[in-house]
Amino acid sequence: MKSIGILSTTALFLILGLSVPANSQQEQQDKQKKQQQQDKPAAQQQQQHQQQQAQAPKQQQQRQQQQAQAPKQQQQRQQQAQAPNQQQQRQQQARGQQNQQSQQRQQQNNAAQQQQQQARGQQNQQNQQRQQQNNSAKQQQQTNRQQDQQRQQQAKGQQDQQRQQRQQQAIVQQGQQRQQRQQQDNRSAQQRSPEQVRVQQVAWQGDRAHSWQSEHHTWQQRGGYNGYRVPDDRFRGYYGQDHGFRIDVLPVMYVGGQRRFQYGGYWFGLVDPWPEYWSNDWYDSDDVYVDYYGDGYYLFNRRYPGDRIAISFYMN
């Protein structure tokens, strides 16, 4: 209402000012300015009051909002006050869970250790069983070896006995054969006439060496033995050191001017001359034998064991 009155007064003054002189108009303007200056605080106060009245509902609304928010704030404060307790509870719960987990892990570890101990115990038992089996197998093998050795020793003993028996029989047979040959030699010597003996000596003199050390040659020097080879079993039965004989009583054959003798089912001939220092009748008085020495067959004289005459075997 005040603002309306002020506006009416101002309008009236403006109407009156148009009719007064210029100086009074000036005075009037000055008054108006003063009046306006006086009215400004009132207007400002009125405007502030209006603003306060306009803001009053907002403030009341804010107070209502604050009042409405007060329980929430109180609840928040309570929650904030309870937060440390809740945090402690959560921490306690977490520690409880950790303790439970630790206990569970400890139980699991204990169970695993028990299983490992059981497994080790089983392994130890299995190892012991295997060791016992191995020991039993070794003992059985040792027993078998001992039995094999005993059987071998028995077989060897039997073989040795049989060999000794054969050797003794061979010695007896050889003695008998020597005796028979000696008897035959004696009979042959008695039957030969002096003329036959002289002819035989002349024939043998043609095979005598002038210097045997330079005239004789080993089979190695001759390039190796290329004649007939007597089978081993046959050779052992008729030849070697244990089978001596006299050449003079053997069948004789000349082939290509070479003298050959038959003994043991084979013919052999002297490839070397006989040494000049042997006795003139060595073929009649000396025991000789045939043997294989290193590189070929040789004729050995028991009276002159260091000498050997190269010979060659023939089928006929």
What is the residue-averaged pLDDT? 79
Spatial order of the strands forming the largest sheet = 1-2-3-6-5-4
Radius of gyration: 76 Å
Order of helices and strands: HHHHHEEEHEEE
Query: Major β-sheet, in short?
Result: 6 strands, antiparallel
Task: List low-pLDDT spans.
Answer: none
Shape: rod-shaped
Our count of helices gives 6
If you had to describe this structure to a student in words, what would you say it looks like?
The chain has about 325 residues and is an alpha+beta fold. Among the domains are: about 1-40; about 150-190; about 205-315, no CATH class. It has 6 helices and 6 strands. A hairpin with a 2-residue loop joins strand 5 (about 295-300) and strand 6 (about 305-315). The chain starts with a helix and ends with a strand.
